Amino acid sequence: MDKLVIEGGRVLNGVITASGAKNSALPVIVATALAEEESLLENVPHGTDVEHICDILSSLGVAVRWDGPGRLRINGAGLNRVQAPYELVRKMRASFYVAGLLLGRLGEAVVPLPGGCSIGSRPVDYHIKGFEALGAQVALEHGYMKAYAKRLTGAKYYVSRASVGATINTMLAAVLAEGTTVLENAAREPEVVDLANLLNAMGAKIRGAGMDVIRIEGVKRLHGTEHEIIPDRIEVGSYLILGAMTGGKVVVENAMGEHLRSVLASLGAIGVEIEESTTAICVQRKDRLTPLNIATQQYPGFPTDLQAPFSVLLTQSDGVSTVRETVFDGRFKYVDELRRMGADIQVERDTAIITGPTQLTGAPVEATDLRGGMALVIGALAAEGKSEVIGLEHIDRGYERLEHKLQNLGACVQRISV
Ligand code: UD1
Questions:
Q1: I want to staple 360 with a disulfide (CB 3.0 to 4.6 A). Which of 59, 341, 356, 404 is the partner?
Q2: CB of 328 sitting under 6 A from ligand 1
Q3: Domains, the chain, ranges and CATH?
């Protein structure tokens, strides 16, 4: 068990390079195994979630091999097992993507149902309805989803809610189906577009990704390809918020501003100065910050994954801000820990009411989920005095080389093995 020891209160300055997007890498890695040839992925982040998905694919017979930093070679030729092991799948919800892969490639999938989650209830009913729409017979037995289809056939599927996971899983199953699938009310997240770009480079015929109707014309087989994962917009956003929080000038490279419009607009609205180039974004806080009311939304709205980091920043605004969480029903668990650092935040149902500005003070705190954990790290870096953050296994899922990146900005942070 590791902990981060942070001496806060320093002004952070400098350049930080964002990694590839975790939420893109996970489905993209799975998708490459739809082909019986090798693919090469670049800009792959190396957090524990990516390690888990690689382990799951290996357990199914897929050859997965790191070929230098950020370079991953995957060959799906050996895929020969239809049951994903519970002890690996239970570690991460996105493991459920192997269901789309197995159904698409082998016509059968036996995958443990993902359990509860620390940010709220996260069922997979829309994923399952997608498989059924494509003609699969699905049974839920003893904690497993068992799906079978002699041949998947294209169909029209209206996703009741624009779910990222259901859109991705249905796409994975539909690319090798017979005929055309039309996904209506599809998620428009950049990670869905990245997946469609990869699949098209492998020979799939997908149109409309990034819009709310995606049309997938099934093909007989896919081939290997080379693909570079898009930058991690949530990591970029986290470091921009950190820069604004600690008051220096922070430049984030390997960033795509067009994936962060709502976040950049919100930063600008509270008084943070932003400069953008094609591949980098710079933030600087000169004046006092003003309060803001925001609500999380599906893309291109304000991302739920930056709700916690942005809420920490709003503790520095002069006045009362509100943050409404509309995507997940349990995403304010970090608030109690932040209060221990002196934050003035009240939660009423789906809304956090934040009164500032507050000089945060260092405290021992515990991360209970990935983004809430990062919010605590950001708070600790701005707080006066020493903080100790435990629960790093959550943060390590999605922030690669965290303490090294922070140290490059001048942060006083150390990882200690307990
Ligand atoms: C993905 C991201 C996560 C992000 C979220 C929303 C990955 C690995 N994770 O999660 O970081 O916070 O998108 O941008 O990419 N829902 C159902 N039934 C379903 C599926 C979803 O009720 O079958 C509900 C969920 O409980 C949630 C909402 O729909 O309330 C949105 O979930 P979804 O877009 O599916 O998020 P994930 O794919 O789980």
A1: 341
A2: yes
A3: 2-19+231-417 (3.65.10.10), 22-228 (3.65.10.10)
